[in-house]
Design goal:
Residues 25-207 form the Aminoglycoside phosphotransferase domain. By secondary structure, the chain is α+β, with helices and mostly antiparallel strands. Helix content is 38%, strand content 17%. Helix 2 packs across helix 6, helix 4 (141-152) packs across helix 7 and helix 7 runs antiparallel to helix 8. It is globular and about 60 Å long. The termini are far apart.
């Protein structure tokens, strides 16, 4: 695609990814450049690229991969439409749209592959429950009880589908375009549903049914084992979140899940 770079803007503090303006035929076009950073390694770059390729094949609303060089650990993708600003009050219509968008992702049946591996929890690069088990992080009676219960239960079985792996408001634009696919993979739909439900509970202090209802309507099948996946998502968080209210909301979400297991 050759062209002079006109502008560069870091999208994560002073680190990548970067939004770059490139001169294409005398006009500036915007792209997102991803490469190695202290947070992002080669495997995550490769997973992000593989996920965008799958998304394009199946028409999932996501950025499109423009170029990749995995030997140099760099990719270039289009800028997603919409914005990631969510309102202060619970946006019911947006939650329903998010559930329907996830149903389209989960309609894609896949088997694990090197760049899209099996995912048994959201944000698979983290395993806060294991870290607490090993004594690397402090714990609480609630988190210990929840972890022991989840460890004792068989993992839900079923067909494996395409999962985004990190569904939170910051990765879901106002046009229901999913961005930042670096922890994508193959797994149970609950990996994504539980994570988004947890994030909404922490952000808004409520766990509405709209996400699951819209997912079921769009997919034409019931969402199963939701309490299990809610608990898994809640456990994959730091012991103490960014403020006391967020921690309390996470704990309330986790207690609700445990009460249904």
């Amino acid at each position: 695609m050759g062209g002079a770079i006109r502008s560069v803007q870091a999208l994560h503090d002073d680190q990548g990814p970067w939004r770059v303006g490139v001169d294409v035929g005398g006009r500036e076009r915007q792209f997102v450049l991803r490469s190695l950073t202290p947070r992002i390694d080669a495997a995550l770059i490769a997973t992000g690229a593989a996920a965008l390729e799958v998304a394009e094949v199946y028409g999932v609303r996501a950025p499109r991969l423009v170029a990749k060089d995995l030997d140099r650990c760099v990719t270039l993708e289009t800028v997603a439409s919409g914005n990631t600003n969510w309102p202060r009050t619970l946006p019911v219509a947006r939650l329903r749209a998010a559930g329907a968008a996830l149903a389209r992702v989960h309609a894609i049946r896949l088997e694990p592959s090197p760049h899209l591996p099996s995912r048994t929890r959201p944000i698979a690069v983290d395993d806060f429950a294991r870290d607490r088990r090993l004594g690397n992080l402090p714990t609480t009676p609630l988190l210990r009880q929840a972890d022991e219960l989840i460890q004792s239960l068989p993992q839900p079985q079923g067909e494996t589908v395409f999962v985004h792996g990190d569904v939170w408001p910051g990765n879901l634009t106002s046009t229901c375009t999913l961005i930042d696919w670096k922890t994508a993979g193959v797994g149970n739909p609950g990996v994504d549903l539980g994570e988004l439900r947890k994030q909404i509970a922490i952000t808004y202090g409520a766990t509405p049914q709209h996400i699951v209802d819209a997912w079921e309507s769009a997919s034409g099948r019931p969402a199963t084992d939701i309490p299990y996946w809610d608990a898994v998502a809640a456990l994959n968080t730091p012991t103490t979140l960014y403020n006391p209210e967020a921690t309390a909301r996470r704990d309330a979400f986790l207690r609700a899940a445990l009460s249904q297991l």
